[in-house]
Design a protein that fits this description.
- The protein is of the alpha/beta class and about 325 residues long.
- The chain folds into 2 domains: about 1-30 and about 50-80 and about 300-330, no CATH class; about 90-290, von Willebrand factor, type A domain (Rossmann fold, 3-Layer(aba) Sandwich).
- The chain has 10 helices and 11 strands.
- It has helices spanning about 20-30, 50-55, 55-75, 110-125, 150-160, 170-185, 210-215, 255-265, 275-290, 305-325, and strands spanning about 1-5, 75-90, 90-100, 130-135, 140-150, 190-195, 220-225, 230-240, 245-250, 270-275, 295-305.
- The two termini are about 55 Å apart.
Length: about 325
């Protein structure tokens, strides 16, 4: 709820300019309002009573009353606006994430998988009105989290992603196929898969182009992301005797032609992320491309305050008249 003080008719406030003009007029004409008598000697008179010195107070009361009436004409009020939003047409999104060993490469910091987890978490925060599901794949694929509107569950899933859950390899076709399977019964107006990989399709029993045709037939849009620097990167190549991964510089191989084909056929878009910042920008761009239609309802309530200023003006006039015809009567 937003509360704001305002004047409904602020043009009347210009009348306040008349107040100093009235004061000047009174200053130059006040002698005409008081009778005068000439004496040859005033030594027998005192300097005047306190009441005679307080007589200008009556004029101040009248000015305050006029000022209050002017403010009342301007209609001061408190404006309270309550806004309610409603998602009109949500989007169902599946994030298909490659969790093969190459995702531990250190060309992104601290590695590709950890960089992705951070960016994906931020992306989820920006989609409060959509349902999101998580599919992971390497040499095989499975649904880590079904499509849900519970963002807490989705973010916890993202944080728990790790290498070693699945057989080795990169089954892009199976990752895409699992995403399509999650969305095939969706009633959402828009259905989207964000497919991320850092390699080449080299395993799985579903051809990526077959999965692409399935997505296309179901009007599922696929955004593809190739993750990894150009050239070479430090990647795990084996395990040492102590069980720790051994890294070596290996050429980065991403099947960009396939990823571009998938995106084009499904009316999506292909991106290449070669750094943490570029990966972040890619998810920001996808967030802007896939906007959920939101209906906004505004309820406005006005608390009119002019009545209190009218009452103040009337009270001031009453006090002035009462003092003028009682306490200050002999000085008028």
């Amino acid at each position: 709820m937003l509360s704001k003080f305002e004047f409904a008719n602020p043009e009347f406030l210009w009348l306040l300019v008349l107040l100093p003009i009235i004061v000047l007029w009174h200053f130059f004409t006040r002698k005409k309002d008081t009778a005068s008598v000439t004496f040859s000697n005033t030594s027998s008179f005192s300097n005047g009573s306190i009441l005679s010195k307080l007589k200008p107070f009556l004029y101040l009361l009248r000015l305050a009353a006029i000022g209050s009436l002017i403010i009342a004409l301007a209609r001061p009020r408190n404006k309270e606006v309550t806004t309610k939003t409603k998602a009109n047409k949500g989007i169902d999104i599946v994030m298909a994430i490659d969790v093969s060993a190459s995702m531990l490469a250190k060309d992104l910091k601290p590695n590709r998988l950890e960089a992705l987890k951070k960016v994906a978490g931020n992306f989820i925060d920006k989609r409060p009105n959509d349902r999101i599901g998580i599919v992971v794949y390497a040499g095989e694929s499975f649904t880590q989290t079904p499509i849900t509107s519970d963002k807490r569950i989705v973010k916890n899933t993202i944080r728990s992603l790790k290498w070693g859950q699945l057989d080795g390899g990169t089954a892009i076709g199976m990752g895409l196929g699992s995403g399509v399977n999650r969305l095939k019964d969706s009633k959402a107006k828009s259905k989207v898969i964000i497919l991320l990989t850092d390699g080449v399709n080299n395993s799985g029993n579903i051809d990526p182009k077959t999965a692409t045709e399935l997505a296309k037939s179901l009007n599922i849009k696929v955004y593809t992301i190739g993750l990894g620097t150009n050239g070479t990167a430090q990647m795990p190549v084996a395990r040492g005797m102590d069980g720790k991964l051994i890294y070596n510089r290996v050429p980065v191989k991403i099947d960009e032609e396939l990823l571009k084909y998938i995106a084009k056929e499904t009316k999506g878009k292909y991106f290449r992320a070669t750094s943490n910042s570029k990966l972040n920008k890619i998810y920001d761009e996808i967030n802007k491309l896939e906007k959920t239609k939101i209906e906004e309802f505004k309820y406005t309530n006005f608390e009119e305050m002019f009545r209190r200023f009218v009452l103040i003006a009337l009270a001031l006039v009453f006090i002035e008249m009462l003092l003028r015809f009682t306490v200050f009567r002999s000085f008028i």
